[in-house]
Amino acid sequence: APTIRLADYRLPDYLVESVELTLRLHPTATRVNARVRFYRNPARADEGAADLRLDGRGLTLVSATIDGVPVPQNALTEDSEGLTVAAAHVPSAFVWEAETEISPETNTALEGLYMSRGMYCTQCEAQGFRKITFWPDRPDVMTTFRVRIEGPADGSAPVLLSNGNLVGSGEGWAEWQDPWAKPSYLFALVAGDLRAVEDHFTTASGRDVLLQIWVRPGDEPRCAYAMDALKRSMRWDEETYGREYDLDRFMIVAVDDFNMGAMENKGLNIFNSRFVLASPETATDADYKSIETIIAHEYFHNWTGNRITCRDWFQLCLKEGLTVFRDQQFSADERSAGVKRIEDVLRLRATQFREDAGPLAHPVRPTEYIEINNFYTATVYEKGAEVIGMLRRLVGPEVYRKALDLYFERHDGQACTIEDWLRVFENVSGRDLSQFARWYSQAGTPRLKAETDWADGKFTLRLSQTTPPTPGQPEKAPLVLPVAFGLLGSDGSTLEAGLLEFSEAERAFGWELPERPVLSLLRGFSAPVIVEHEITPADRAFLLAHDSDSFTRWEAGRSFALAELTGPEGEPDPAYLAALVAVADDPALDPAYRALLLSLPSEDEVMAQIAAVGRAPDPLEVWRRRRALETAVARALGDRARALYDSNVVPGPYTPDADAAGRRALRGRALAALTALDPAGSVARAQYASADNMTERMTALSLLVSRGLGKKELAAFHSEWRHDRLVIDKWFTVQAALTPPETAVETVEALSRREDFDWRNPNRFRSLIGAFASGNPAGFHRADGSGYRLVVDWLIRLDSLNPQTTARLASLLGTWRMFDPGRQALMKAELERLAARPDLSRDTGEIVGRLLR
Ligand code: HT7
Ligand code: ZN
């Protein structure tokens, strides 16, 4: 497959004025008629006539005409990626009409038009529309769509949906018109036997919007939270960004078979059902939180993505980084901002730092790809959001808002680039952002080194920055780092605080102070860097007790724990344990925050820390030491664990709000401590038996399974929920991720042989194979290589059906160079076995190729 390069970008030869699509649905023989008004792109007209090149994959062309005249055989050439009409046969403006046939039922890749349990649905981002009809399938070709859907003859799909406004309908057909020009990747169609949960929203300017969430019959009662999150998102975008919704209706559809979380198709968002459906009995607090975030994210795309889209796929972060940043702001406003920031940093480190440290490292704006689906990454999304957060810090919230206003005003209806985005900020702030722009082109996580000095009443902070080489980028230049800091006096008061703009390779900053301060560095995690700062245990304990910044306070505890888990083994530092006890005892602290302070770093985090200092982590050893520290913390907490557990019962029926969830989280930490000291798991068993909500049940079940207990509970859980796909996914996940290392591989193997391991369904596949490979390092990295073999066997099987999901999971093997020679050899051999498959997909081929490079 060819490599696509940003440097090769050319304006499209032809643009589209409008399109009329007619789809006659049939499981194996859907007919698609496209009437397209093309015209020569004026920006390229002086180059003379050009071939008409249309993308198309897996389409059967039935007929093609230009201005009503069949295109002659010798003027049209078809290949596996599309068709070309010779320039001599292409007028400067014309109507192209093509009829194609496709087979949604056999489309297992879940891209284009496919079927999910009897329901027709589409996924067109990034390049799925070319599997529906021949088209210039690139985001800078935008047009208005009119869509006629004719339902299948057997009447199995009475509900027929597409983008925009419903303009006509009758028995077995519906017509939709989207007044907003959009690229093909935002096209959507859904047809099925569906039910709507409806509500209304009045926009700031007084327009009424019909809100519909479409689900399978029976799922209606599980839509309330998604609807509530949608209405809150709509209001928030009006209040925070001045953005109103722009159609008469906004629809969400829940689909069971879906490669990712959700998709922002104009006016018709399509969601993985796990990010829509929730009830207290079936969904956890974490599920509710994800639903809120993803509903907001997709809704926010209406302005950042749909009204203003990307010129080409290299600019993906233009919409994704910004929309993640916006959804993070929203959740921070709706819940506790401090807790949210820590959760976002944990996610960034677990996914993006990991990506940056391995063979898949790439800039926020990549410069080349083979398969664009492989670039929906943590770097584009999460680091892309961090870059926007830094920009906002640097210019301040008021200027940020002005810049966004200008962005929407200047670029509405356009397909834009990162240069357009940065220009808006330069124009509004008067700043030169050329150095800042390196954040978009330079891969890798910068190391920010800090050294301090106290002499003669002067405190000196010496900062230096380096970024390690990444594939294809051996040399790195300094970046603009906004470094938020505080200097604390011995009574915990703030002597100095502010923001340093650090953009050199090294620089010293100095303050005259009445006493030696304690440095609180990178408050709010103001830049996505790894801090290297030798800090004494006494200062760490001081920050953990006194820092007014909730991020750096938590980070002090985290660095304590990491030092315990990666340094020489022995009794934990009493100062650390004392600090944790103080946290547990402090009723003034938000319970959700206390829960975070009391949780230990994940095994992955510990392994990354070991690898960062040049050692090969032993996943089993990491697991064992983490267990030991859990036990030590539980002992130190002593009776407090029981007191915390008893005093944090949330009264009344379950509610998913942040306060209640925070108390449940804290109570869960207390239960973990109790279970660490109780070989029979009696309190966890009791909680499992008495809980009336899925959060408390899963907390208890997780603890039991992680201790090798819970057989009885697992059986009861399965029999109670065997008809609920989303709940059974949890049943698979808890076992795959938490079964102790001795029996993990055998457990996953046995689960994979079950009839209800419906591996063709991406959620189910991820719930077992994905959860094992990503959530159970000690099991996955078993020294005999059986974990790797098991996962790769399944990846081979899935690849021929669903390359996108396979490639995503294959990237989990990207850490192979971090381990000891034995594990390295085993992982590499498995990657080579995968690479050698004769029919390996382009998606998986690209990932495995990069991993082995
Ligand atoms: N913009 C969407 C990204 C996406 C996707 C979604 C579902 C299936 C396949 C997909 N490929 C790309 C989702 C988002 O970022 O909001
Ligand atoms: Zn997105």
TrEMBL record:
* Residue stretches making up the Peptidase M1 alanyl aminopeptidase Ig-like fold domain: 444-533
- Which keywords accompany this UniProt record? Aminopeptidase, Hydrolase, Metal-binding, Metalloprotease, Protease, Zinc
One biological-process term from Gene Ontology?
Answer: proteolysis
Q: Which Pfam families match?
A: DUF3458 (PF11940), DUF3458_C (PF17432), Peptidase_M1 (PF01433), Peptidase_M1_N (PF17900)
Provide the catalytic activity annotation: Release of an N-terminal amino acid, Xaa-|-Yaa- from a peptide, amide or arylamide. Xaa is preferably Ala, but may be most amino acids including Pro (slow action). When a terminal hydrophobic residue is followed by a prolyl residue, the two may be released as an intact Xaa-Pro dipeptide
Names of the cofactor(s): Zn(2+)
The chain positions of domain Aminopeptidase N-like N-terminal read 20-186
Where in the numbering of this chain does the Peptidase M1 alanyl aminopeptidase C-terminal domain appear? Answer: 538-852
A GO MF annotation of the entry reads: zinc ion binding
Q: EC no.?
A: 3.4.11.2
InterPro entries per record: Aminopeptidase_N-like_N, Aminopeptidase_N-like_N_sf, PepN_Ig-like_sf, Peptidase_M1, Peptidase_M1_dom, Peptidase_M1_pepN, Peptidase_M1_pepN_C, Peptidase_M1_pepN_C_sf
**In this protein, which residues make up the domain named Peptidase M1 membrane alanine aminopeptidase?**
225-438
Q: Does the keyword Signal apply?
A: no
**Metal-binding as a keyword?**
yes
Family listed: Belongs to the peptidase M1 family.
This one is known as Aminopeptidase N
- Which taxonomic lineage is given here? Bacteria, Pseudomonadati, Pseudomonadota, Alphaproteobacteria, Rhodobacterales
